[in-house]
């Protein structure tokens, strides 16, 4: 990791811009198996995060992620707002500045536990958890950023054949099969943006 890679502000900016760039695609995915607002919701939250970027950039990793998580809770709305907010706020509870591999593993585990508790969900239900859970496992196994991005891409693609049993898509029953889950795709976009910034975290 170079010093610029360790910059929390630049990392948050990259995540926000990646989501904003894919907002229409996320909304399209949510139109197929939800109510068509996921891209719009996420874009609104990430624009609020970008508005705060200068303040966030001056903070250490833990405080910056907590602040970004609070913005997402307030601005994203829907099912995903509180869940992504919880994810980022919990990631921000323990991370060192700069983050270490062990610190990231522990923070990711805690964040996923918190998201599962908040949404009363687990992996296998065609949600964002179907991306973040295998990513956490890959991180724990010591995989590098490119491999982790590939795990996220495969995990996202695998939601296409899954039956939704949580969230709005579950109302469709069997008709939820054959479509990628919008939250899984937004999680993949976020992981890809982070992986692209991180060198091998020691
Ligand atoms: P809403 O469904 O309220 O319109 P969004 O469209 O913003 O909210 O987000 C939908 C995404 O949220 C889904 O694609 C799914 O990945 C995720 N999601 C919904 N409910 C849960 C849950 N209980 N646990 C984890 N993720 C969930
Ligand atoms: Mg929706």
What do these coordinates show?
- It is built from 10 helices and no strands.
- It is mostly helical and 202 residues long.
- The protein has one domain (7-198): Serine Threonine Protein Phosphatase 5, Tetratricopeptide repeat (Alpha Horseshoe), CATH 1.25.40.
- Helix 8 (129-140) packs parallel to helix 10.
- It is globular and about 45 Å long.
- Bound molecules: adenosine-5'-diphosphate and magnesium ion.
- Magnesium ion (MG) binds at residues 30, 34-35, 37-38, 78, 168.
Q: CATH topology, which one? A: Serine Threonine Protein Phosphatase 5, Tetratricopeptide repeat
Report the strand count.
0
Mean pLDDT: 94
Bound molecules: adenosine-5'-diphosphate, magnesium ion
Question: What is the gist of this entry?
Answer:
The protein is an all-alpha fold and 202 residues long. It is built from 10 helices and no strands.
Could you name the key traits of this structure?
Serine Threonine Protein Phosphatase 5, Tetratricopeptide repeat, 0% strand, binds adenosine-5'-diphosphate, binds magnesium ion
Secondary structure blueprint with pairings:
Layout: H1 8-21, H2 23-33, H3 38-51, H4 53-57, H5 61-75, H6 80-94, H7 101-119, H8 129-140, H9 145-158, H10 182-197
Helix pairs in contact: 1-3, 1-10, 2-3, 2-10, 3-5, 5-6, 6-7, 7-8, 8-9, 8-10, 9-10
The structure holds adenosine-5'-diphosphate and magnesium ion.
């Amino acid at each position: 990791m170079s010093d610029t890679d360790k910059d929390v502000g630049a990392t948050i900016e990259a995540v926000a811009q990646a989501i904003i760039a894919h907002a229409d695609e996320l909304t399209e995915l949510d139109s197929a198996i939800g109510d068509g607002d996921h891209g719009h919701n996420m874009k609104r939250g990430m624009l609020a995060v970008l508005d705060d970027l200068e303040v966030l950039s001056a903070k250490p990793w833990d405080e910056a992620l907590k602040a970004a998580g609070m913005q997402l809770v307030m601005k994203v709305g829907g099912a995903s707002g509180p869940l992504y907010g919880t994810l980022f706020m919990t990631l921000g509870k323990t991370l060192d500045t700069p983050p270490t591999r062990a610190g990231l593993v522990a923070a990711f585990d805690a964040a996923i536990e918190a998201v599962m508790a908040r949404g009363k969900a687990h992996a296998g239900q065609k949600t964002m958890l179907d991306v973040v859970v295998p990513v956490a496992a890959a991180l724990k196994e010591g995989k590098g950023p490119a491999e982790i991005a590939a795990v996220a891409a495969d995990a996202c693609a695998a939601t296409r054949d899954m039956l939704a049993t949580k969230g709005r898509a579950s109302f469709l029953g069997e008709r939820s099969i054959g479509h990628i889950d919008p939250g899984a795709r937004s999680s993949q976009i976020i992981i890809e943006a982070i992986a692209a910034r991180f060198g091998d975290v020691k």
